[in-house]
Amino acid sequence: MSSKGYRRFKSRLDYFRTDKEFVNILVLNKELLKDDDTIFQRVDAAKHPLLFNRKNNAHNRELVVNHLRRTIYVAFIKDMYEEVTEYMRYILQEGAMNGANTDRLVGEHKVNMNANDILAISTKKEIVQKIMAQIFQQLENKRSTLSLISKINKKLDLSIKQQLIDKALPFLEIRHILVHSDGKPDQAFLKKNPTIEVDKEKKIVLNATFIEEAYDAVNSLLVAIDEAMEAKNYFSAAELQPHKKNKILA
């Protein structure tokens, strides 16, 4: 069985993995797309002025497709982080709705709701969602991926193995480096994660192998969380569905 939250994560990431495979095909076949007069076939001066003005040679084709490839890899890492964050919000709400210890869930957090907010809510589910949304926002405001995952793990008493968290964490933290440091990690990050490579511009090396390693590590973590949530009966019945074999994307 798997939850709707996990299936949503996997479905969205599979589309990005498809993009990764497609751009690899473009890289391998870039010379088949060249034209006699322009860098690529069917390049139009009006519609594609920048490509039209590129010199028609193999070097420029390589520059164009490699830039596209890195752009997709960067987008993959950023989107994966966002989807993990969405999943964490989802399991916090599901746990709160289905018997998780309220003292653990609330802990040190303070929740503010005025009388009008309360009276405007019609169901228990909406109350839980608003309270958990505030708690999640407080966790997210700490700007620490490790803290976010570890605290939700503790609040829901999931007992996820630390090695799963440690393996996935660097790939999630890289999102912040891509957003705030142009992909250039500091020495503290590199010392803590010696397997992460940087190029001559001091940027993290993103390639197909790296992206698959990132996906595998993060996916393994979410599978473990999903299984722990199910074992504790923290998912509503409507949220669970038998595992499906990989299907052809529409």
On the 0 to 100 scale, the average pLDDT is 92
pLDDT < 50 stretches: none
N-end to C-end Cα span = 23 Å
Our count of helices gives 10
Count of strand segments: 2
Shape: elongated
Query: Helicity level, as a percent range?
Result: 55-70%
What would you report as the Rg, rounded to the nearest angstrom?
A: 22 Å
Report the order of strands and helices: EHHHHHHHHHHE
Q: What is the spatial order of strands in the main beta sheet?
A: 1-2
The fraction of residues in strands falls at under 5%
Largest sheet, in brief, is: 2 strands, antiparallel
Which structural class do you get from the secondary structure elements?
mainly alpha
Concise structural overview:
With 250 residues, this protein is mainly alpha-helical.
Describe it for me?
- This protein has 250 residues and is mainly alpha-helical.
- Helices cover 62% and strands 2% of the residues.
- It is built from ten helices and two strands.
- It has helices at residues 4-28, 49-52, 58-97, 102-106, 115-119, 124-140, 145-155, 162-180, 187-192, 208-231; strands at 2-3, 240-241.
- Strands 1-2 form a two-stranded antiparallel ribbon.
- It is elongated and about 70 Å long.
- The two termini are 23 Å apart.
- The mean pLDDT is 92.
